[in-house]
Amino acid sequence: MTKNQAIGLVLLRVSGGRPTADMSVREMEIRDMIAVAANYAIDRGDNMNREEDRGRDYLNQFYGQYTAPVDQSGNQAFFIMEDKTVPLKGNNGLRLVYDNCGNYYGKLSDADRPSIKYYSKLTPCMKWYSRTGQRVNLYGEGALTATVNYEALTDINDIGDDDELPLVAGTEPEFLDILYALATGQMGTPYDPIINNDDINKAQL
User: Fold this and answer.
1) Residue 193, Cβ density class (10 Å: 0-12 exposed, 13-18 middle, ≥19 buried)
2) How far is the C-alpha of 33 from the C-alpha of 24, rounded, in Å?
3) How far apart are CA 107 and CA 116, in angstroms?
4) Global pTM?
5) Separation of alpha carbons 81 and 83, rounded Å
6) What is the largest CA-CA distance in the chain?
7) 115-135: string of b/e by CB count within 10 Å (b at 16+)?
8) pLDDT at 124
9) Sign of CA dihedral 118, 119, 120, 122
10) Rounded Cα distance, 126 and 63, in Å
11) Pairing verdict, β 64-69 and 147-152
C-alpha cells in the first residue's frame, strides 16, 4: 500500500464512497496524519515479527541500503545519516553498518558506550557503532576508511507518495482505521511545539 492509495481509501471512507468538494476532511489533513498512523502500525508489526519469528529485526524488504562518507577530522570517527528513520524499539531504524571489505560493526547500546575502551581491549579486531540522532559514531575504525554502508528504515515523511509503506501483512486494516480516526478527530494527535517548514507552508496556503 502506497501513501496515495492510503489517502484515497480514507477519503472514500470519509465521504461514504463519493468524494465531494465540500468534504469536511481534506487530503492535506489525511497526509499530515500518515506518519503518526503508520508508526503505530509499524510498531505493531515489529511486535508481531519478534513474537512469531523470535527475531529482533523488522521485515528485511523495507530496509534501504545507503553509503555515507566517514568524517575522521576529529578525535572520533563518525558519519551522518542522510534521512531520518522510523523510531523502532532498540534504535532498530538503523540496523547494520559495514565497510567495503565486509567488516560489520557491532551496535553499542547507550548503557555500553562508557565501556567501549574495555570492549576494544577485549576484542581488538572488533568494530562498533553508536547512534545519537543522525550522527553515528564509529569505534575501532581504520584511519584509511573513507566510506561505510548502512541499512535503514526511512522515516515515513521522507518516502515518496508512490512508495510502499513499510507495513507488515495484516496491519493494513488497523493502519487505515487509525488514519481515519485521526483525520476525522475521533482520535487525538500528539502536540508538536516545533515550528518547521511544513507549518510555514500551511500558514501561507
Assistant:
1) exposed
2) 15
3) 11
4) 0.71
5) 6
6) 68
7) eeeebeeeeeeebbbbbeeee
8) 73
9) positive
10) 24
11) antiparallel
122-175: pLDDT as tens digits: 777 788 899 988 999 998 887 788 999 999 988 888 888 898 898 888 889 999
Residue positions counted in the chain: 205
Q: What is d(CA 157, CA 25) in angstroms, rounded to the nearest whole number?
A: 20
Burial of 30 (0-12, 13-18, 19+ CB in 10 A): buried
Distances (CA, A) of 46 to 6, 61, 80, 125: 20, 13, 25, 32
Give 59-106 as a 3 state SS string: CHHHCEEEEEECECCCCCCEEECCCCECCCHHHCCEEEEECCCCCEEE
As a whole number, the mean pLDDT across the chain is 81
Q: Are 136 and 94 in contact (CB under 8 A)?
A: yes
* Separation of first and last alpha carbons in the chain: 29
**How many other C-beta atoms lie within 10 A of the C-beta of residue 38?**
26
Whether the CA torsion 29, 204, 198, 193 is positive or negative: it is negative
How far, in Å, CA of 61 to CA of 75, rounded?
A: 36
Inter-residue contact 157 to 198 (CB < 8 Å): no
Among 144, 165, 130, 131, CA closest to 45: 165
